[in-house]
Amino acid sequence: MDKTTIIGLLLVALVVVGGQYLEGGSLAMIFQVTAAVIVLGGTLGAICLSFPPAHLLVACRSLSQIFVEPKDEADPLIDQITEFAYRSRREGILSLESELDNLSDDFFRRTLQLAVDGLEPEMIREIMEIELRQLRDSGSVPARVFESAGGYAPTMGILGAVFGLIQVMNYLTEPSKLGPGIAVAFVATVYGVGSANLLFLPIAHKLQLRHQRQLLHKELALEGVLGVSAGVHPRLIEERLIGLLAGWPPSGKRRTFSTASLFVDHTPADLQVEQTLPPGTPNPEPVDYATPNVTQS
Asked: Is a pLDDT exceeding 90 seen at residue 278?
């Protein structure tokens, strides 16, 4: 459960209700069926005109995401990719073929499949970035739907205010009927501005953050598999992936990276267990593990 969503909704209700009572009013004064029909119905109609049914269905289904705290899959993903890198260095990249069926992420599995098939890293990146761009566009549809609703709602509120004023003008000779028209005019504006800034736009922003987090996981998978395919040192792959997480708050304590382990002379026996130099020990001359095929002069 996402606590910030619950807290936000409670604060919105508290501010609206509390503000009304502080002004000496009641909830019945801000409940206007006519204003609600104009604002919400008009906003829904504008959304239906703007997006196809499939997009609206996806937006409705994704609404539940704002109540669910996503799992932090970044660190387990980095651990898995690092393990694949070590295994590839010991047994060859073909040894990772048996892991394909165990991967639940389709993007990760297809990327690793291309690497196992022997494609060059440049070709893998070109193929998977096409899919990544498509996922970036399609995954932002729910956020765009609610963002559009946040843009239409205030306009519908103004429209409701105009309707209310028209009603007032028609009954200038009957003062007893002026009240309902004025109420619709002001309440419709409140509904339009309030629903946009307290519901639609915040929902769109949170859905966009969820989508960006999902894209980050796919970028981690792509960069990690590209490093494995190119024979990059596993520690360098790990550090590169950790760098991609900069700015994203972790769910727990994120591990740090020790560059001293890059200068250890790896023999076939110690490829399974990484060593680090003790504090104060001078570093030997580094070996370029990122390009193992280049002969050191």
From this structure: no
